[in-house]
Design goal:
single chain; alpha/beta; Quinone Oxidoreductase, Chain A, domain 1; Rossmann fold; 2 domains; eight-stranded mixed sheet; six-stranded parallel sheet; 9 helices
Length: 387
Amino acid sequence: MSLPAGGPATGTPQSAPPGQAPLPLLDPDQITAGPTYTHDVDIPKAMTAVVLTGHGGTDRLEVRDDVAVPSPDPDQVLIRVSAAGVNNTDINTRTGWYSRDEEEAQTAWSGKPLTFPRIQGADCCGRIVAVGAHVDPARVGQRVVVRTMQEPDASGSPVTLGSEIDGAFAEYVVTRSTEAFSIDSPLDDTILGALPCSYSTAEGLLQRAGLRDERVLITGASGGVGSAAVMLARLRGAHITAVVGPGKADQVRALGADVILDRDSADLDDLPANTMDVVLDVVGGDSFPALLQALRPRGRYAVCGAVGGAHVDLDLRDLYLKDLSLLGATFHDRSVFADLVRHVESGALTPIVAATYPLADIATAQQTFSRHEHVGKLVLVPPTSPD
């Protein structure tokens, strides 16, 4: 990312993501190289973006209107962002939650220190307005969603939108053309802006667990990933037991859950043993032993989150005497995201949006997100979002 004058000292190189050259901080008036092809809109030199200046609270998020619009590299596209969902990973990355030790450098989920300044935003829906020299110019004008967990860079390091590379909390973003998936759907951009991170995580989780028309228990089922998992499990014909927060039972039942367990009143330790084929856990924490007990012999436990606690108690006898499989799921094949797009294009899947906010209100949106009072996703809308 490049910041104009008014940010850190002009011309001072910043640490670059793995495999990339350092990005200098430039004044937009100094930028002369433009994209190879443009759409039927004028691309400005500067844009509004939310700049993360370091790890910490929402005070480290600066809403600026003088950030240089990036130009695509030969294999990249420039996207005018129309909607960007809010995700746990945005907050966890900002706070340094992925670091395993308070003594070590704070890291992103790649395990490497984050570089600043950084534009976050793991979700992106928008339209391609320019392409690099090696990209088919016919892509200009395409409506796209961008894959969050992308192919590794040349060094083999993970690449995540809004973490190792700048993301969609801005009016414009660049990404490799291969990571921008064209989508044909009547759904509003704000709905599609909720899709990439949570729904691909959920789809990857279900595919990792090999879920079929079986009995499945889903924790955190009212959140972004959890509610997506409920909807995607319903598409597979599964019988769904959903653990939800207070007051959210009716909404999650409407998404496809067969049985609702209230997170605060239900004692997961009293779950009937040997009743579930699959557990999809997006929370982690103290319920882990009870979830394993609930699995039938040869059952599968798949996890993609640990907001309830990263350290759990494991009795190895539960694991080997029941022949259980324990599966982690974060990064996934391109085919997972392609499958997700097909679900939307066929009309089988409509992401759930609880509320939208102007991009400038990101602090309020993230504070609301952290209270976990909603079902589905919160979505930010940049100022130049198309109608």
